[in-house]
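#struct-pred
JK: can someone run the complex with nicotinamide-adenine-dinucleotide? inputs below
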Amino acid sequence: MADFNVDVAIIGAGTAGLAAERKARAAGARTLLIDPHFSGTTCASVGCMPSKLLIAAGNAAHHVRAAGKFGIEVGAPRVDGPKVMARVQRLRDDFVSGVKKQIADLPDGVTVKASARFASPTELALDDGRMVAAKAIVIAVGSSPVIPPPFEDLGDTLITNETLFDLEDLPASVGVIGAGPLGLELAQALARLGVRVEVFDKSAQLAGLEAGEPETSLREALKDELGFHLNVEPEARRNGDGGVTVSWSENGETKEADFDRLMVATGRAPELDGLDLEKSGLELNENGGPVFDAATLQCGQSPVFIVGDANGDRPILHEASKEGTIAGANAASFPDVQSFERSTRLQVMFTEPNMAKVGAEPDEDTVVGKVDFADQGRARAMGVNQGVCEVYAKAHCGALTGATLVGPDAEHLAHLICWEIENGSKASDLLNKPFYHPTLEEGLKTALKQICKDIGLPKPDSRDDAELPGDFGSD
Ligand SMILES: Cc1cc2nc3c(=O)[nH]c(=O)nc-3n(C[C@H](O)[C@H](O)[C@H](O)COP(=O)(O)OP(=O)(O)OC[C@H]3O[C@@H](n4cnc5c(N)ncnc54)[C@H](O)[C@@H]3O)c2cc1C
Ligand SMILES: NC(=O)c1ccc[n+]([C@@H]2O[C@H](COP(=O)([O-])OP(=O)(O)OC[C@H]3O[C@@H](n4cnc5c(N)ncnc54)[C@H](O)[C@@H]3O)[C@@H](O)[C@H]2O)c1
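RT: done, structure tokens with the ligand placed:
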């Protein structure tokens, strides 16, 4: 006899789980939301929000330093580490308390503080010994940092996104393992706050980008602030000074560098280990995760759904929320399961310059338009003229399909392109829209014009294609 009999049980109260619970309950289901911590989501507590707080502090210091190029002499900023961290923690705690309030406001009996694992395809065992029987189950357990073996025994010299934001002061130096979005965003923020930072990655490219002009422009833009050691296999050991020594081989030479702390940012893995998935009856893929359908979030034909970072498909916030909502609806109506159209892929890295990826990767039917922000008028005026953006369209018709963007405020250009892809726009449709002068958006015109020219899309008689003031010369 189960202690809880519900329609939909949700394992994990992160962004995806909270959305699933909300949607299933709104559809009339009796729900149970299970979490051992109810810590206020990864996003608010150790993810998106505290990282953006640290980035904001780093950028503030950087813009003071950069004032000199405008003829404004303010001297070097003095960064007060404890004050920086106190602001990060104060605002983070505020964001977390907002989520915790949402959870506290859930109807009585909807939440249970426990860790869950499968006992059968429709039963969960809680770590307090109680049992849950559910007509449908949503797995929303999120992900956790991967710590590769060379970095496992570093004690408190090792930091991850789960511990960095709790530091009371900024370390003097940090080695960063992993040049993905997580490593690069935090590495640049720390460097701008006066921390000596060197970044190590086994890949030859930054941020998971393909080799090409956007990646080269990103590396070029970041290299003055961050020491890069790419295409290396770093190892680390604690040293006698209470810090950590990183060793690696580069150009045939063995090298070493000492840091106060080592931040490991080598990816995050779905938190599936403690779920006893072998008792769920689900078909598992080569990584041990359930096979699922991205349009329904359903695992095979079973009453189990998997959402957010737990399924590893689109490990970003707005997708966690969307997937939770889809799964919540489908779990409530199970076995009547509906397919939902998924959004165009959109990913942003909040370094300066931003990096963003939109839509599909280029294929053999792709034409590429390019803009180099080194020569873009508004970017030059603001002193942020770095980065190369590529816009992709179908070669046979000019329909926009994707973009790889490195550039100032590329987060906004990425949204614009993403929305135009969703509208089914061609490069010529977007080019025919008004572009205010002088804006960063005008940079896109260069890429769009190239696409239209290359595939012969007609140009309206009312448009003049002359270069705009600021778009020539170099700075
Ligand atoms: C440093 C960092 C910065 C990021 N920045 C961005 C960004 O700028 N933009 C963006 O879009 N994305 C960003 N992300 C990614 C984003 O934070 C995640 O994609 C998102 O938070 C995932 O939400 P989730 O609901 O899947 O998981 P989570 O919010 O992690 O929730 C999982 C929940 O499951 C619970 N749980 C685990 N196991 C069990 C169990 N056995 N039983 C019961 N409960 C369990 C956990 O306690 C947790 O509460 C960032 C991530 C990191 C780490
Ligand atoms: N702005 C954002 O949306 C944002 C920001 C931060 C994090 N995140 C999310 O957080 C998650 C984790 O991000 P991430 O950057 O850690 O993951 P990632 O997988 O994108 O990058 C990990 C990097 O570590 C490198 N690496 C792995 N093992 C290594 C080793 N042993 N030695 C050296 N290098 C090694 C990889 O080559 C890769 O470049 C992702 O899901 C990401 O979407 C998102």
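RT: quick notes.
The mean pLDDT is 96.
The two ends are 74 Å apart (CA to CA).
JK: thanks, will look after standup
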